[in-house]
Amino acid sequence: MAFKKIATKSARPTDPESLFRDLPVTDPDIKSLWSQQADILREYHKKHLKSADIALELPTGTGKTLVGLLIGEFRRRAFDERILYLCPTKQLAYQVQKQASKYGINSHALVGKKSECSISDYNEYLSGKAIAIITYSGLFNTNPKLNDANVIILDDAHAGENYISK
User: pLDDT per residue over 103-124, tens digit each?
Assistant: First the structure.
């Protein structure tokens, strides 16, 4: 007779900045957060954790994607929330998913037709085990496949104006 192992949940992170240190980063070039990223994550945690809407602004090339992913991953782990990360294009969605993988963040690019998306990837999102990365059109259309997120992170929010206004 063998004993059945019971899966245990990992400890909940205390804040997005410390979560980064605990992630299984797979890219040897990623060693630490940049100071501006850490500053924004600290401010988010201290002042905006319970805010319904926030906007983060960083210049191009200063790590907005990682900041957004860390906030999403923190909320997913700490509060058991379903997280959608929106990108303007399919290509960007795949790039964000690739970056998330390098950071050790479980995510899936669920772009294209609903029938083309992996059922197991979709179920990981539904059960709160992964961040779903989709396009603006994937959410802001007449019949979205993912419409039950607790948190929606908009990458390049200005690029989604046309979808949102419609």
Answer: 999 999 999 777 677 899 999 9
**How far apart (Å, rounded) are the C-alpha atoms in residues 36 and 143?**
38
d(CA 114, CA 144): 9
For residue 139, give every residue at least 6 positions away whose Cβ sits within 8 Å of its Cβ, in sequence order, or none: 84, 86, 146, 147, 152, 163
d(CA 61, CA 140): 27
Furthest CA-CA distance within the chain: 61
- 126-135 pLDDT, tens digit per residue, is 999 999 999 9
- Please state, in angstroms and rounded to a whole number, the distance separating the CA atoms of residues 35 and 148: 34
In this structure, how many other beta carbons lie within 10 angstroms of the beta carbon of residue 121?
A: 17
Per residue in 66-76, pLDDT (tens digit) is 999 999 999 99
* Domains identified in the chain, total number: 1
CA atoms within 13 A on the CB side of 121: 19
Flag whether 70 is in a domain.
yes
Alpha-carbon gap, residue 106 to 127, rounded angstroms = 13
Query: Which domain does 101 fall in, by range?
Result: 16-49+58-165
Is 5 among the domain residues? Answer: no
User: Across all residues in the chain, what is the average pLDDT?
Assistant: 85
pLDDT of residue 159: 57
